[in-house]
UniProtKB/TrEMBL annotation:
Organism: Corynebacterium yudongzhengii
Name recorded for this polypeptide: SPFH/Band 7/PHB domain protein
PANTHER family with a match to the protein in the record: STOMATIN-LIKE PROTEIN 2, MITOCHONDRIAL
Basic and acidic residues: compositionally biased ranges: 403-412
Membrane protein topology class: Single-pass membrane protein
Length: 412
């Protein structure tokens, strides 16, 4: 019985010694080992053998990267505004022994140093700078914390400002300012848009007026050119009509003279015609009285005797001179078929076609040059001048054959 009890006690002592001599440290943790109250070593990730009743695990430390969020801290800015700032610190324990023996509570130490550094940094900036300079604040906080916690075996990875909450009145003022800024930008954009619209409208009206003026200018130029061509053609026609009328009157006089010569009229006939016309001359409204001198018959007698020949019986008789062949040919009737030809000459038709082509030409963007005077009227004038040298000036509308023939007749 005693042996059984001793065996059980011995087995329990062995089990206790085994339990006291083995420590299991999981991955991501580190254990600080003390022997008789003194630090001996730091172990991590595996099974560790301890001296029973001499070695003990002082504390287990998490060596993974940790993220700690601290409560909002009241900080006064440079412009005397109190803001609440939340910060998040990311750190990792590189030396567990320093973290255990260097500081009582490294979490509290990180928090206090973060708050002190935050107040120092934020206190030197205005609220506007704090809201717009978060990256600068994060870098300065990380540098200050990293240098302050290096002796604790900590490595500060990141420091972030989670929130910056100004007072409610300041928030309202900021919101009003933001609203005013947005309204200002909206009004500026609206004004700029209206200005651009007015500029574009003015430019469009300017271009429209320029194009309208260009069109009116081109139309005026074409109208002036058309009037000039019309006046030229009208002048050509008037000149041709005047010339033809003069030629007709000259031809009529020649025909009358030739007819008189060919008919061999005697002075007796002329005297009879004169006496026959006297009553008609007296029928005028302004002719109230006619007086014929008594010597009028004697004058006619002497005038007839000067052109007559006295016969053997003592009577003066008038013998008409002989008529030559040219006078007889002049007295013959002319061919009047061409007198009633109303067709335009080819030169005038070509000039009118050229003027119509210029008038119907579309207006170009550039200012068109004034077309030179058509060469057809000039050619017609040259022909007329050449014909005039032969038998008088010939119009553009007269046929060359007629002008030449009329010139020959006038020469005769």
């Amino acid at each position: 019985m005693f042996a059984a009890i001793f065996f059980v006690v011995l087995l329990a002592v062995i089990v206790l010694l085994v339990v006291k001599s083995i420590a299991l440290i999981p991955q991501g943790e580190a254990a600080v080992i003390e022997r008789l109250g003194r630090y001996t070593r730091t172990v991590s990730g595996g099974i560790t053998v301890l001296v029973p009743f001499l070695d003990r695990v002082r504390e287990r430390v998490d060596t993974r990267e940790r993220v700690v969020s601290f409560p909002p801290q009241a900080v006064i800015t440079q412009d005397n505004l109190t803001v609440a700032i939340d910060i998040v610190v990311t750190f990792q324990i590189n030396d567990p022994a320093r973290a255990i023996y260097g500081v009582d509570n490294y979490i509290v130490g990180v928090e206090q140093i973060s708050v002190a550094t935050l107040r120092d940094v934020v206190g030197g900036m205005t609220l506007e700078e704090n809201l717009t300079s978060r990256d600068t604040i994060n870098r300065r906080l990380r540098g200050e914390l990293d240098s302050a916690t290096a002796k604790w075996g900590l490595r500060i990875s990141r420091v972030e400002l989670k929130a910056i909450d100004p007072p409610p009145t300041v928030q309202q003022s900021m919101e009003m300012q933001m609203k005013a800024d947005r309204e200002k930008r909206a009004m500026i954009l609206t004004a700029e848009g209206q200005r651009e619209s007015d500029i574009k409208t003015a430019e469009g009206e300017k271009q429209a007026r320029i194009l309208s003026a260009e069109g009116e200018k081109h139309a005026a130029i074409l109208a002036a050119e058309a009037d000039r061509q019309a006046e030229m053609l009208r002048a050509e026609g008037d000149r041709a009509a005047t010339y033809l009328r003069a030629q007709g009157e000259a031809r009529s006089i020649q025909k009358i003279n030739a007819a008189i010569k060919a008919s061999r009229i005697t002075p007796e006939v002329l005297a009879y015609n004169y006496l026959d016309k006297l009553p008609q001359m007296a029928q005028g409204e302004a002719s109230t009285m006619w007086m014929i001198p008594s010597q009028f018959g004697d004058t006619l007698e002497r005038f007839a005797k000067s052109f007559a020949t006295r016969d053997d019986d003592g009577v003066f008789r008038y013998e008409a001179p002989g008529v030559d062949e040219d006078t007889r040919e002049m007295a013959e009737p002319d061919n009047t078929d061409e007198w009633f030809n109303t067709a335009s000459s080819p030169e005038i038709a070509e000039a009118v076609a050229a003027a119509n082509a210029v008038a119907q030409k579309p207006v170009d963007p550039a200012v068109p040059e004034v077309p030179e005077r058509s060469q057809q009227p000039k050619a017609a004038e040259d022909k007329a001048s050449s014909a005039g040298e032969l038998g008088g000036s010939s119009p553009a509308g007269a046929s060359p054959e007629i002008s030449f023939r009329e010139g020959e007749e006038m020469d005769r």
